[in-house]
Amino acid sequence: MGIATINPATGETVKTFEALTPNEINEKLAIAQSCFETYRKSAIAQKSEWLHNAANILERNSTEYGEIMTLEMGKPIKGAIAEAKKCAWVCRYYADNAADFLADVPAESDGSQAFIRYQPLGAVLAVMPWNFPFWQVFRFAAPNLMAGNVGLLKHASNVPQCALKIEEIIRDAGFPEGAFQTLLIGSEAVEQVINDACVKAATLTGSEPAGASLASAAGKQIKKTLLELGGSDPFVVLESADLDEAVAAGTTARMLNNGQSCIAAKRFIVVESIADEFERKMTERFKSLKIGDPTLEETDLGPLATSSILQDLDEQVQKSIEMGAKAVIGGQPLKDRPGNFYPPTILTNIPSGSPAEKEEFFGPVALLFRVKNIDDAIALANDTPFGLGASGWTQNEQERDRLINELEAGAVFINGLVKSDPRIPFGGIKRSGYGRELGIQGIHEFVNVKTVWVK
């Protein structure tokens, strides 16, 4: 796919961009290396000031940035504006806390003094997805810039204007030239960047194949990677749950970002005694959602980001139905309008071996499973190659503790939808990836944890 802005609500190609040539890539890498040699020595107070400036810019221009996100990937405008403001939050969080997170840590030893010192590595490549085109980048950029690393962004090819705008924000905040650069390149050029000696590590948020490709290329160069990949997150509802609250949160968790979120609730695992009522209430909620122009404040559900995503999702739904699944609501693309619109859909009676059983559905499709008890619920929740997030709903303390201890995921949220928060680590296990972003762990991922011993 070429690098272009294609409005997913209309199918119109708005603007195209030329990819960097190999020589232009090398020039950008040289700038990054040159910048790092001086930037790494910048006082942490100065970096904090610059990052606070970036937060102010993000908040001041949040509507403008939201409109760019909505144009390029179809996110409803109110969610897009909120995303820009959330980026300001992560900038302020690391600007305010990095000095403590990176402070020397005393250690016991047989010397007269020993401590741990955190130091930057160099240039870090970030391969980022289109679904949260600002947030995914700033949750990488904020801690790494405070740690003294410099950033190289290879963004998704369908959000080039977002990518360029992020570079502009960081430059306008006062960071020196080369501290953060956008590389308008296709996936085929990533290996050239990874192979360059100035690049010391890489992070990727995206699909399993993309993550495997990046990790393989980095592994050949003995370079560290962090991967945040797919998820088929379970949303477990037990008999003691507040059903209305669970349905409301489940609808939000499934439809957030037009259903295109790694941590969206995808598999709704509900005990039989309340499953019929849960299905009825969720169906009512789905029917009430307003589908349409994502630039309008009243829109709940906009288009999928690309036509290929729409096609892939529909193929998963149709194959599951052919194998015996039932569509309670939805189940067919909306063909009465231009753009990549798919309706809110609920699939039940999901058969073994169907795509709906274990694959990730990236769109507004809820997969409803009925189970006898908590034992079956946990077993089904864990019967997946993924392990990103999980949500459990119960008022019973013993059930809560079992869900916390036994659900195989990087995060377990009890009586709430799974979400990212600058203050707590974020990441997965199994085929959902490895490493952690956000929190203190996020700033320690790409630093040299240097042991210092003094006689």
Question: What does this entry look like structurally?
Answer:
Belongs to the aldehyde dehydrogenase family. With 455 residues, this protein is an alpha/beta fold. Helices cover 42% and strands 19% of the residues. The chain is built from 15 helices and 18 strands. The longest helix has 25 residues, at 77-101. The protein is globular. It starts with a strand and ends with a strand. The mean pLDDT is 98.
Topology:
Layout: E1 3-6, E2 13-17, H1 22-39, H2 44-60, H3 62-73, H4 77-101, E3 105-106, E4 113-120, E5 123-127, H5 135-147, E6 150-154, H6 160-172, E7 180-182, H7 190-195, E8 199-205, H8 208-220, E9 224-228, E10 234-237, H9 243-255, E11 267-271, H10 272-288, H11 307-322, E12 326-329, E13 345-348, H12 355-358, E14 365-371, H13 374-382, E15 389-393, H14 397-406, E16 411-414, E17 433-434, H15 439-444, E18 447-454
Parallel strand pairs: 5-6, 5-8, 6-7, 8-9, 10-11, 10-15, 11-14, 13-14, 15-16
Antiparallel strand pairs: 1-2, 3-4, 4-18, 9-17, 12-13
Helix pairs in contact: 2-4, 2-5, 3-4, 3-6, 4-5, 9-10
Pfam family, one: Aldedh
Domain Aldehyde dehydrogenase: 3-452
InterPro entries: Ald_DH/histidinol_DH (IPR016161), Ald_DH_C (IPR016163), Ald_DH_N (IPR016162), Aldehyde_DH_dom (IPR015590), ALDH_GabD1-like (IPR044148), GABD/Sad-like (IPR047110)
